């Protein structure tokens, strides 16, 4: 380890803290998914309007990260974390009391601006502490711990919405974020001391230099396309499974959780494979799998193959992402030690920017069938394969 971390900080505790930061995104996304029909009914708006609050969250994640990069390189990792989580807590509180969908969409955007501090800075901290190959294994471990969020969040969200109302979900987010601020203040070491040489006004130049790095862009865009498939699924899943396949909202977590378990399992298989294989070898194979499964999912939507015809390839697609995310992230960050914060921010902006487009497309194309979700996932799988072949494999 190369860091200023306290030597008595246990590795397991460090991973748990980093995973908690990374989990704010999945927690904020997944917990309120089962409540979509209830929110639409309570605010008297179409379901597609509620789905736009999810798209606005993705837009916030994309735009916010670009600012946190140079800030965390300039001022260190912890102070920007406190600011971001504070914004998150306040926005969550407003969401809990909102009276119309427009306010929900706006403050979900602001909530995302706060949560993306954890997304950016956790990646930068990993890059501060570990070597290239080690980062892929650490990201796999983070996926294991943070994977609890997408498994448990829909369960809690479904039951909280049923027994206490959907607003209680956002009240819980306030409690979680404030508790996390306290834990970080006590246990998280500073891994990057403030650097007076970093000037915020030069951040655009830094981003331009990073964008010119074909190595970085290849991994970032291919990984982003794969991630967009995940968010197309997240956006459309509550309608598909609750409305079309008539699964009760409180039981939606079983479907969502099973797919998350597949993702976690593959991330741990990935961690073991990395002891013998490079992340490049694994990515070359797994992007082919995503492309094939994407075509199958598109066909399932076109020909209406029913619950199992959709659920099985969807499970395999989501599971395969457990081998995509950690390896693509490690590949993108491998050449960016000097500007790890800015590189992490740009990586997130690119990936969540693509995800926002995917989510908005599913909402915009909503037609009462499974096709918009399935077709978008299929497109993202094929696009991820094509980008990897063109930008990474050809450049090798």
Automatic annotation (TrEMBL):
It comes from the Bacteria. InterPro entries: Efflux_drug-R_Bcr/CmlA, MFS, MFS_dom, MFS_trans_sf. It is a multi-pass membrane protein. SUPFAM superfamilies: MFS general substrate transporter. GO terms for cellular component: plasma membrane. GO terms for molecular function: sodium:proton antiporter activity; xenobiotic transmembrane transporter activity. The chain crosses the membrane at residues 50-69, 81-99, 105-126, 138-160, 166-188, 219-245, 251-274, 286-308, 314-333, 345-363, 369-392. PROSITE patterns: MFS. It is found in: Cell membrane. Residues 11-396 form the Major facilitator superfamily (MFS) profile domain. Keywords: Cell membrane, Membrane, Transmembrane, Transmembrane helix, Transport. Its main location: membrane. GO terms for biological process: xenobiotic detoxification by transmembrane export across the plasma membrane. Belongs to the major facilitator superfamily. Bcr/CmlA family. This is Drug resistance transporter, Bcr/CflA family. It comes from Bdellovibrio bacteriovorus (strain ATCC 15356 / DSM 50701 / NCIMB 9529 / HD100).
